Amino acid sequence: MKKNGILALAAIFALSMSVMAQDLSTPAQDQDHKGERKEFKQGERPQATAQVRAERLAKQLSLTDEQKAKVQALYEKQDANREKRKVEAQKTREEMKARFEAERKAQDAELEKIIGTEKFQKFQATRMEHQKKMQQREENNSKPDQADTK
Q1: Per-residue pLDDT reduced to its tens digit, 101-117
Q2: Does residue 145 belong to any structural domain of this protein?
Q3: Is 91 helix (H, G, I), strand (E, B) or coil?
Q4: Is residue 83 part of a domain?
Q5: Is the model more confident about 40 or about 97?
Q6: In Å, how far are 10, 11, 12, 15, 17 from 3, measured between CA atoms?
Q7: Within a 10 A sphere around the Cβ of 149, how many other Cβ atoms?
Q8: Which DSSP state fits 146?
Q9: CA 77/CA 96 separation, integer angstroms
Q10: Residue 54 within any structural domain of the chain
């Protein structure tokens, strides 16, 4: 009895795993999604216009023309707010970058006083070498895979 139960359990497990594996990837769907990934990097997907999004929602929910116009106005308002926040965030990033750069220069000057010019230059050379390695690693990670381009 135990053998039959264990055998049945193993068969169900194997069957469920094969069904799951088939569901995870069908060739037609993979081709569609791979094309999207090749075309856009993360965060670079263009936003559909307010009009297109409103039309899509109107079709989905069978909205009236009046409702569609109001939805489109709402989407336009949201787009304007998003663009405004994007510009503000860019300004904030630039300010932070300038502040951190000033702090780093002050820290470097203090470090140079402590360890001397010769050792500080050696330290800077090591720092630059490390930065180059990190940039190369970042470039290698951001390149698209050769298999995806085929």
Answers
A1: 999 999 999 999 999 99
A2: no
A3: helix
A4: yes
A5: 97
A6: 10, 12, 14, 18, 21
A7: 8
A8: T
A9: 29
A10: yes
Give the DSSP H or E segment for 60: helix 50-61
Residue 132 lies in a domain: yes
Q: Which two tokens stand for residue 111?
A: 């470090």
State which residues form the domain around 105.
48-140
Measured distance CA(14)–CA(42) in Å, rounded? 36
Which helix (H) or strand (E) element contains residue 63? none
What sign does the dihedral 57-63-69-75 (CA atoms) show?
Answer: negative
What the block records as the tokens of 81 is 């707010």
The amino acid at 131: Q
The tokens for 95 are: 């300010």
Number of domains the chain is built from: 1
Looking at residue 44, its pLDDT comes to 61
Determine the residue type at 96.
M
Whole-angstrom distance, CA of residue 27 vs CA of residue 22 = 10
pLDDT(145) > 60: no
**At residue 28, does pLDDT exceed 90?**
no
